[in-house]
């Protein structure tokens, strides 16, 4: 069976049908036999793969939502994997590369991979390969520099930007310390490990002295 290689577009692109809608000709068995159901399932799967690459679990879920029986779903996955249309390892590696462009860290990417149906051992292996020692730290540094510039702004804007209280800020704390805390929480939210986020904030902001003295403190004080 011929078909276009999986594209890289996002879910919900123009022309893509929701998983729960019945396709042309109905679900499995609508044509009166398992072979016809297999042909229909393959056609649907290839259509979905034309919009973007998908994991085996994503294709299986969509076919199950359409009412195709398990033997048909298993046969579709077997054929698509044999043809190279579905490759969870390749997809995971591509996602690791894309994470750098999206400026997200390994923790957030791992959660995304698991949500898409990548097996945890495979996700961990690909992440270990794609994020060698020091890569996460350097990526966090680059992102933090840009974010810190936004938090501080120009001298005319920095007073209002740093003084404004945000969720997680401690009332009465030094404005610069609060800005550092927001930077730390931002890096956590992007999926970087806590020890990496803390190190980057310390490197970038330096020792923050307030009335009580002391530096940035641990992540609990940020």
TrEMBL record:
<dbReference type="Pfam" id="PF21982">
    <property type="entry name" value="RecX_HTH1"/>
</dbReference>
<dbReference type="Pfam" id="PF02631">
    <property type="entry name" value="RecX_HTH2"/>
</dbReference>
<dbReference type="InterPro" id="IPR036388">
    <property type="entry name" value="WH-like_DNA-bd_sf"/>
</dbReference>
<dbReference type="GO" id="GO:0005737">
    <property type="term" value="C:cytoplasm"/>
</dbReference>
<feature type="domain" description="RecX first three-helical">
    <location>
        <begin position="41"/>
        <end position="80"/>
    </location>
</feature>
<feature type="region of interest" description="Disordered">
    <location>
        <begin position="149"/>
        <end position="177"/>
    </location>
</feature>
<keyword id="KW-0963">Cytoplasm</keyword>
<dbReference type="GO" id="GO:0006282">
    <property type="term" value="P:regulation of DNA repair"/>
</dbReference>
<comment type="function">
    <text>Modulates RecA activity.</text>
</comment>
<comment type="similarity">
    <text>Belongs to the RecX family.</text>
</comment>
<feature type="compositionally biased region" description="Gly residues">
    <location>
        <begin position="22"/>
        <end position="31"/>
    </location>
</feature>
<dbReference type="InterPro" id="IPR053926">
    <property type="entry name" value="RecX_HTH_1st"/>
</dbReference>
<feature type="compositionally biased region" description="Basic and acidic residues">
    <location>
        <begin position="163"/>
        <end position="177"/>
    </location>
</feature>
<dbReference type="InterPro" id="IPR003783">
    <property type="entry name" value="Regulatory_RecX"/>
</dbReference>
<feature type="region of interest" description="Disordered">
    <location>
        <begin position="1"/>
        <end position="31"/>
    </location>
</feature>
<feature type="compositionally biased region" description="Gly residues">
    <location>
        <begin position="1"/>
        <end position="13"/>
    </location>
</feature>
<dbReference type="InterPro" id="IPR053924">
    <property type="entry name" value="RecX_HTH_2nd"/>
</dbReference>
<protein>
    <recommendedName>
        <fullName>Regulatory protein RecX</fullName>
    </recommendedName>
</protein>
<feature type="domain" description="RecX second three-helical">
    <location>
        <begin position="87"/>
        <end position="127"/>
    </location>
</feature>
């Amino acid at each position: 069976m011929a078909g276009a290689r999986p594209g890289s577009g996002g879910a919900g692109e123009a022309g893509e049908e929701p998983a729960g809608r019945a396709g042309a000709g109905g679900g499995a068995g609508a044509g009166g036999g398992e072979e016809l159901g297999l042909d229909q399932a393959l056609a649907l799967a290839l259509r979905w793969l034309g919009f973007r690459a998908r994991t085996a679990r994503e294709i299986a879920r969509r076919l199950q939502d359409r009412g195709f029986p398990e033997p048909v779903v298993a046969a579709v996955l077997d054929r698509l994997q044999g043809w190279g249309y579905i490759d969870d390892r390749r997809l995971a590696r591509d996602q690791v590369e894309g994470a750098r462009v999206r400026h997200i860290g390994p923790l957030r990417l791992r959660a995304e991979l698991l949500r898409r149906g990548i097996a945890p051992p495979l996700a961990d292996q690909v992440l270990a390969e794609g994020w060698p020692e020091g890569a996460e730290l350097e990526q966090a540094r680059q992102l933090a520099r840009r974010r810190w510039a936004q938090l501080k702004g120009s001298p005319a804007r920095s007073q209002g930007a740093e003084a404004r209280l945000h969720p997680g800020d401690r009332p009465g704390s030094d404005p610069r310390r609060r800005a550092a805390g927001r930077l730390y929480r931002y890096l956590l939210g992007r999926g970087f490990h806590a020890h990496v986020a803390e190190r980057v904030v310390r490197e970038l902001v330096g020792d923050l002295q307030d009335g009580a003295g002391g530096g940035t403190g641990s992540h609990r004080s940020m």
